[in-house]
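pls design
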């Protein structure tokens, strides 16, 4: 769990990137899991938590029919977004994943959104009521999830949850879960409200001071 805490701190620090009129939060996935439905019966009975995977590791998403490795695999991601003031307008939000192997040039990837809770569960795998965005397969997946994230921010959510599904049979793809820049991430551009923005900056400065970091603003 040390690494998870570290990611929370890094995610918070990275939010200090104000543009001319807005700010950007880059939140790396703190929680990453793969849920498995071996019998294709819609019940995801197995959950693999790869949030603290080694230096370089991969997780899978996809649906394999036949062969020795059958299962439908769905990816569960949760990102902390509590650095954004409640109700701030969101001008852009992108869910990024870096695929390293598989059938990513054939599939279509759908990201279903949900309010996160800071926990991985098999129930997250079937939380597909809200389609946040979709994109044809690519090794560099960048799904536009702006409208969904704006709703989350309006509702004061602390975590953004996504369940990623590959929409084609007989494929499976591996994406990177490394603790580097290619870890799944959620990038959010938002406009701080006049009051809330200042409060956020003060809170961030307090956080930096509390960990003895001291980053200098130019
Ligand atoms: Ca099953
Ligand atoms: Ca969850």
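designed seq:
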């Amino acid at each position: 769990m040390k690494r998870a805490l570290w990611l929370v701190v890094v995610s918070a620090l990275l939010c200090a990137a104000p543009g001319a009129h807005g700010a950007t939060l880059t939140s790396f996935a703190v929680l990453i899991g793969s849920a498995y439905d071996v019998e294709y019966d819609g019940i995801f009975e197995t959950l693999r938590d790869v949030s603290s995977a080694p230096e370089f590791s991969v997780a899978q998403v996809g649906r394999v029919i036949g062969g020795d490795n059958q299962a439908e695999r769905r990816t569960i991601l949760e990102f902390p977004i509590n650095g954004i003031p409640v109700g701030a307008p969101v001008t852009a939000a992108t869910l990024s994943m870096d695929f390293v192997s598989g059938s990513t040039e054939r599939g279509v990837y759908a990201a279903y959104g949900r309010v996160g809770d800071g926990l991985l569960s098999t129930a997250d795998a079937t939380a597909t009521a809200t389609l946040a965005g979709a994109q044809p397969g690519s090794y560099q997946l960048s799904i536009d999830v702006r409208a969904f994230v704006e709703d989350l921010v309006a509702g004061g959510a602390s975590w953004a949850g996504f369940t990623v599904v590959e929409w084609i049979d007989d494929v499976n793809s591996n994406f990177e879960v490394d603790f580097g820049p290619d870890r799944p991430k959620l990038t959010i551009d938002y406009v701080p409200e006049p009051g809330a923005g200042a409060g956020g900056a003060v809170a961030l400065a307090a956080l930096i001071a509390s960990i003895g970091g001291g980053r200098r603003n130019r």
